[in-house]
Amino acid sequence: xxxxxxxxxxxxxxxxxxxxSAACSGAASAQSLEEKQKNPDQWVLPGKxxxxxxxxxxxxxxxxxVRNLKVAWTFSTGxxxxxxxxxxxxxxxxxxxxxxxxxxYALDLTKEGAPIKxxxxxxxxxxxxxxxxxxxxxxxxxxxxGKIFFNTLDAKTVxxxxxxxxxxxxxxxxxxxxxxxxxxxxxxxxxxxxxxISGGEFGVRGFVTANDINTxxxxxxxxxxxxxxxxxxxxxxxxxxxxxxxxxxxxxxxxGDQWRLGGGTTWGWYxxxxxxxxxxxxxxxxGTWNPDQRPGDNKWSMTIWARDPDTGEARWAYQMTxxxxxxxxxxxxxxxxxxxxxxxxxxxxxxFDRNGFAYTLDRATGEVxxxxxxxxxxxxxxxxxxxxxxxxxxxxxxxxxENTTNICPSAMGFKDQQPxxxxxxxxxxxxxxxxxxxxxxxxxxxxxxxVPYVGAIVKTYAxxxxxxxxxxxxxxxxxxxxxxxxxxxxxxxxALVTAGDVVFYGTMDGWFKAVSAQSGEELWxxxxxxxxxxAPMTYxxxxxxxxxxxxxxxxxxxxxxxxxxxxxxxxxAALGAVNAFQDLGxxxxxxxxxxxxxx
Length: 599
Hints:
Helix content: under 10%
Largest sheet: 5 strands, mixed
C-alpha cells in the first residue's frame, strides 16, 4: 500500500495495527494452548499434548479402583460409519466431529447428561463419499484461541466459534473431482492450523497446508513429491543419510512425470516440539500400488518429515520404505519423548510403522537410533542403521502380473493410524496391532482424475498364530516387546495411559478394556454397542470426578464389511479387507455412540 497521502497513512496504520493484533492473538493462543495441554483436567489436543503421548496425569481411576467403572452417560452421534479419533474437553465443554457428514457437537459438561450446547452441520459434497479411502472417517477437531477447527471429507478446513458454533471462516483445500479428501485431525501451532490431504489411491499428490487461525488465509503449502521448491527443501535441509541428499529427489527418483500422481498423502497425525520448533508427520504410499509402473525410490513418499511450522521449510527427512511395493503408508503418529539409550539421553521420536518396524529416531537430526520388528515381519530382515534402508527379502517384493504370497505384514500394516500412547512413569509405549499378512499382485492401471488408481489385487488374512490383532507394551530404548495381549480381531482403535497405571483400548468386536500398564493384566471391560476404532481420552469434570470417554462405531478400512454393507463374495474387495474380516458382522453392528465412564 502506498502511504503517501494522509488518508492512506491512516489506512496503513489501521492495517499495521490489525496485523499486530492478529500476531499478538496468535502468540497468545499459542501460549494458552501450551498451558492448557499441561492441565490434566482438560484434553485440548488430539493426542493430549504436542508430543502425542496420550498420557494423563489423572489417577483417581487406577489399578485398584478401575474395577468400579460404570457408564456415566452416553450420546448418540446420529451417524453410522466409522468413528475414529477422540473428543476434546476444553473449559467444561466436550467437542467432537462425526464421520461424514462431519457434524460437530459441543456438549455442556456442567449440566446433567451433558446436553448439546451447539451443533454444526457443514455443507459437505456427497461426491466425497465415493472417493474416500477407506471409509468416510474423521479423526477429530482442534482447539485454539476460542475456536474449534476441523476438516470435512470434501477437503475444507473450517473454523467455528467455540462458544456458539458460528462459522468464522472456511477454506477449500482440495478438489473432490480429483479424489482429494481430508480425514485427518488438524493441529494448531502458534497462529497456524495445519492440515493434510487424503487420496493416495486416486493419484493425489500429497501436501501439507498451514492457514492463519484468525483469517483462514493460506500461509504456506508444501508437497510430498516434486521439485525442491515445491517440497519446501532449501539450504537448511540437512538429512542424515546420503541417499536423501541431492537436488530435486522428489522428481529424479521417479520415472518421468509419475511424481505428479505420486501419492505421499498426509492423512495421519502431526506432532510438535516447541523447544526445537519443529513439527513432524509422515507421508503415505506412492501411487500406484503397482511398483513396476514407478521405478526408483519414489521420494518423498513413505517419509517422516521435520519442518519449520512458520514457513513449512524442511529441516530433515527420513524415508522408511523406499520404492514401497506393499502399500506400507508412513503416516502413523510420531511420539516425541526423551529416552536414555545406551547411557545417553536422546531427543527421540518413536514411530510404529505400517511396515512392521518400530523406529526410534533422533528427532533433531533424523538419525535412526534403532529399528526393530514388533511383529512377524518377513518382507525384510532388518533396517541397516548405516544407510537407514530396509534389508529386503527379494522373494517378498511384489511385481506386476505375479501373485506374491504370504507377505507379513499386510497392506494394513502391523499397525495402521490407530495411535499408541506413552507413560513417563513406566517409560513404555502402549500400541494397538494388526496381526495380518497378505497375497499381493501388481496390475497395470491408467490414471483418470477421480477414479481409483490402485493397480493391485490384495488378499488379507490372519498372521502367525491365527489371531488377527494384539495390544502390546514396547520399550523404545531397547527395541523390545515387554508384554502382549492377543485379540481375535485387529485392534483398530487408539490407546490411552494414565498416572493410575491403567491403559485403555477398544476392540473391533466392541469391548472397551482397561489393563495394567505394568503387566498387561486385564482389570476391567465393558461391551459397547458397536466396534471401537476410536481413541479413548480422559478428563476431570466440573464435579471433580475423573471420566474416561471413547467413541464407538465400527468402520474404517478394517470395518468396511459392516459399515459399508459390503458383499462377502469377493475376498479381495475393499483392498483385501473382506477376506480378513468376513466374520465381523457376526460380532458387531453399525452405530455411532459416545460412551463416558466414571467411578
